[in-house]
Amino acid sequence: MGHKPSAVLFDLDGTLADTAPDLASALNATLTHYGQATLPYETIRPVVSHGGIALTKLGFGMQPDAPGFDERRQYLLDVYADNLCRDTVLFDGMAAVLETLERAAIPWGIVTNKPAWLTDPLIEAMQLVTRAGCVVSGDTCSNRKPHPEPILHACALLDRAPQQTWYVGDAGRDMQAGNAAGCYTIGALYGYLHPDDPPHTWECDITIEQPTQLLDLLADADRSV
Q1: Are the CB atoms for 125 and 119 separated by under 8 Å?
Q2: Is the preceding peptide bond at 21 cis, omega within 30 degrees of 0?
Q3: Strand spans (E) along the chain
Q4: DSSP letter at 168?
Q5: How far is residue 75's CA from residue 72's CA, in Å, rounded to a whole number?
Q6: Distance (Å, whole) CA 77 – CA 75
Q7: Fewer Cβ in 10 A, N or C end of the chain?
Q8: How would you classify the pairing of strands 134-136 and 108-111?
Q9: How far apart are CA 158 and CA 196, in angstroms?
Q10: Is 21 helix (H, G, I), strand (E, B) or coil?
């Protein structure tokens, strides 16, 4: 398990915050607008971590190079932007994790592939702006996850070594990015697990079934210091 982390970084959608209800509502509003049948929440949830392109493909059965795809994707994102934080909350137990980190003076941050024009207002609506030590969005750096650059950038912003940083995420590209950056990688099995991206392929250091297990990991790391 190793030593206590000097920082903890989180993916946003499906790891830190349960954004699926609002993204599912936005997709269904888009489908309705274009005269398509809506989809059940259970069908949409696993795709949410993979962003607007994946959601548009799911909803319309179109490939990104198909005529009308970009228009539908943009409509989806615009609807979502207007309804960013209706039902979005931290996952159960995550509030306690953040409070524990803050009490221990361990900075935490967010590294997401969500673009800043959606990330920043969401973090503000969730009242996390002053608490997050850094927020790195999908367009902050020249590369996105699975490239390690956003995680390395976050570590630099926090002035922490990647080797002493934990990265928590719910997709293979999160673990790839964290591993390439040299972080300790934690797979969130409570997140939005896509059938094409099964956890057994992630190559992370450890997996957790719920956020409160991070408290156990922190306590164990504390004892090993």
Answers
A1: no
A2: no
A3: 7-10, 17-18, 89-90, 108-111, 134-136, 165-169, 184-188, 206-208
A4: E
A5: 5
A6: 5
A7: C
A8: parallel
A9: 33
A10: helix
Closest CA to 13 of 107, 96, 113: 113
13 given a catalytic annotation = yes
Q: Which amino acid is at 154?
A: A
What token pair was written down for 217? 């990991």
Identify the pLDDT of residue 1: 53
> What is the structure's pLDDT at 216?
95
pLDDT digits 0-9 by tens, 100-123: 999 999 999 999 999 999 999 999
**CB neighbours (10 Å) of residue 90?**
16
Question: What count of residues does the chain have?
Answer: 225
Contact 18, 179 (CB under 8 A): no
Chain-centre distance for alpha carbon 52: 13
Q: Can you give the pLDDT at residue 2? A: 56
Closest-CA residue to 112 (of 85, 144, 74):
144
Q: How far apart are CA 77 and CA 51, in angstroms?
A: 10
d(CA 222, CA 3): 7
Could you say which residues of the chain have pLDDT below 70?
1-2, 225
Neighbours of 129 (CB within 10 A): 11
| Active-site residue, from 11, 22, 170, 174 | 11
CA distance linking residue 196 with residue 191, whole number of Å: 14
Q: 16, 110 in Cβ contact below 8 A?
A: yes
Q: Is 87 one of the annotated active-site residues of the chain?
A: no
Give yes or no for a contact between 39 and 27, defined as CB atoms under 8 angstroms apart: yes
